[in-house]
Amino acid sequence: MKKFRTEERATRIATLALLLLLEGIIPAMTGAAAPHSAPASLPEKYEHWLEEEVVYIITPKEKDVFLQLNTDKDRDLFIKAFWKQRDPIPLTDRNEFKEEHYRRIEYANSHFQRGTPLPGWKTDRGRIYIILGPPRNIDSFEDSSSVYPTIVWFYQGMSRYGLPDAFNVVFFKRRGTGGYELYSPVLDGPQSLLANMPVTQTDYRVAYRELLRTAPALARVSLNLIPGDPSSSGSPSMASDRLLNSLSSVPRKNVKDEYAQKLLLYKDSIEVEYSTNYIPNDHRVSISRDRSGVFFVNYLFELPPLSMDFLENRYVTRISVNGTVWGSGGNMIFQHQKDSSLQLAMDQHEKIKGRKFSFQDAFPLVEGRYRLSLLLKNEASKEFTSLEKDIVIPSASSLQLSDILLSYKKEEKPEENAKKAFRIAGTQFYPAAQNYFIPADTLAVTFQIFGLTGALRREGSARITFIKDGLEFRTEEKALAGHGTKECFIAEFPLHDFPPARYEIRVSVLDRTKKEILSKEAPFFVSPVASLPRPWINAAVLPPAGDPYYSYLLGGQLMNKNDIPGAKAYFEAAYEANPESIAYASSYGEVLFRAEEYAAVKEVLRPLLESENYGVLDLLARSHHATGEFETALGYYKDFLSHYGTSYPVLTLIGDCYYRLGEKEEALRAWEKSLELNPEQAKIRELVDSLKKK
C-alpha cells in the first residue's frame, strides 16, 4: 500500500528503526535474511499460494524449504503438511485453522478494498484481520469534522502469543483520503489524526490536548495502544510500536516448523502417506565400549504418546528405524535397520496411555568420524521422525574420555545372554532424553576412559564437579585404581539437596600430580516439581557381547571404507565362529577375493554349493577365472545364469573365458548378447568389431 509520508515522518521512521534495533526488536540489516521471492519457474498456483494465501502465516524456514522444492508433487505434499501442522484437532477430517484462515481472507477481500486500489487482503486492515481475526470491539470515528476517519479495533486474550492481554489497533485515513492505514503512536502521533491541525504542527502535546477536547476516547489510544500501560508517561509509547512490530509473528508463534526441513531431507526416503506426518522428538546418542572392546552407538527416540491400532482386543503397531552412517568423504559406511512389532493387551495399554514412548537400540561401529542419520516410522499412525548427529568412534588405543551419560535410574543386568542400548559393563542405564531430573532422583553419572594407560589407572583420578550459576556447587574425586580398562565409571548423587536450577557437570581426568589431562561437560536440570512422568521403553534385544554377528557387521563397515585387511580380520573371526552361516562365509569369501586370495575363496565357498546356496556361484566363477581355470569358470558362470537369469556382466566374462580358450565364435556370441543388454560397453564393442573383421 502506498504511504504518503512527510520528511519529518521519514526521520521518525529512521529513529524508531534505530531504537527497535538497539532494543533487539528487529534484526540488523546486515544480519537479516533477505525475504525470498518466488522463482520465475514457480507455477502460478503455487506462487499464488505462497505470496497471497499464506504470506502472513508461513514461517521463514517453511518458505525457504518450499522454494527449494522442484516438483509439483513435492509442493503438494508440502502444502498438505503445512496445514496439518496447524490443525488444532488432527484426529478429525476438518482442519478448523485452515477453514478459519480462508474465511478471514474472504472477509478481508469483501470488506477492506473500498477506497484503495489494493485487494482487501493486502491492505493494513486486511493483514491485521487475517493475522489476529475479528476484534473484540470496534470504535469508529468517521463522522467527525475535527478528526480524520479513524477506526479502533480492540483485542483481548492473546497473551499466549506473547502479546499484552488487552490492546488496541488503530487505522486512519491519512489527510482524510485513500484507504485506512495502520497508526503508530511514535511514527504518526495524535497530530496526524486531527483534521484541523496544521501540517507544520509536530508537537504531539498540543495535538493530544486538542484531541482530548474533541475526541477523548480516541485521545486515550493515540499515545498508547495498551490500556493500563504506564511506560509512555504521557508521551508516544515505544511499547505500542513494539507491539505493532510483533503482530506479524503471531501466526508463527506456536508452529513447530522443524517438519519442513525434515520433509525436504527425507522426502525421497519415505512413503507418500508418511511424508506430511512429521512429529518432533527428543533424542540421545551415546558412544560406549563393551567388554569385548567393540564400540557401540546407543540411541533413543523419545516421542509423544504412541498411536496404535486396535485389532482383535489388542493394541498393535510396528516401529521401523532406518539409519545411515556416512563417512567424512560422503561415502556410505553402514546401513542400520530395525523393525519392532508392538502388541499390548488392553490392561497394558491402559497403564501406558498418555505417557511418552521411548524406542532404544544400539549398533556397533568402527573407528572414525561420521554423520549419523536415523529415520523412525510408526506404521499405525503413518508418522515419522528423525535425528541427525555427528559422531566420533575413537581409536581403541588413544587416550580419550567418553561423553557423560546422565541417568535417572540404573539396574544390574549381566550381558551374558543379551545386550541392549545403554547397557554398559553389566549395568543398564536409563538416561533422560532432555537431562531433566527431580529432587527425589538419584543421578547416575557414567563415563568411560578409552586407552587408559597402566600408570594413569594406578595413580590417576577422576574429578566430578557440579557448577550452578557459574560457581562450583559440589566436587567429588575418585581414584581410577580398581577400574578395568574397558569398564565404565559410575558415580551416584542424590539430588534432594540440589536446589531446582540449571547445572553443568564437568568430569576431569587427573594424573598423579592432579593435572587435568581430559575433560567433558554436560548440562542438566533439577526441576522443582515433585515428579516427572518417565516414558515407557521399547528396547531392541541384541546378541551378547562377543557374538560373531558384531564381527560380521564391523567387517562390512571396513569393506565400505575400503580397508580390506581390517575387513578380512573381522570376517574371518565371524566365519571361524560359525562356518555354517551363509552370510559369514559369503562375506569372508568376498573379502578374500578382493585380497586376491583366490584359493582361499574356493575353499570357503565350495561347501556352500552342497547346501544349494547358489549365490556364491558368481564369486567362485570369478576366482577360477582369475587363476586361469577358464573351463571351470565357464561352468560356474553358466550355472549362475540358469539360476538367476541373464546378466550382461556375466555374459561379458563368459565371452572372455571363451576368447582365452581360443573359441572366438563362442566369445563373439556371448559378447553380442551382452551388448544387446548394455550397448554402452566401448571396449567390448571394439573386440566384437575386431573379431568380425577377422
Structural description of this entry:
- This protein has 694 residues and is an alpha+beta fold.
- Among the domains are: 135-254, no CATH class; 279-539, Macroglobulin (MG2) domain (Immunoglobulin-like), CATH 2.60.40.
- It is built from 21 helices and 25 strands.
- Strands 7, 8, 9, 11 and 12 form a 5-stranded antiparallel sheet that branches. A 5-stranded antiparallel sheet has the order 15-16-14-18-22, with no helix packed on it.
- A hairpin with a 5-residue loop joins strand 23 (501-510) and strand 24 (516-526).
- Helix 7 runs antiparallel to helix 8 (216-222), helix 13 packs antiparallel against helix 14 (564-577) and helix 15 (582-594) runs antiparallel to helix 16 (598-610).
- The longest helix is centred in the first third of the chain and has 16 residues, at 7-22.
- The termini are far apart.
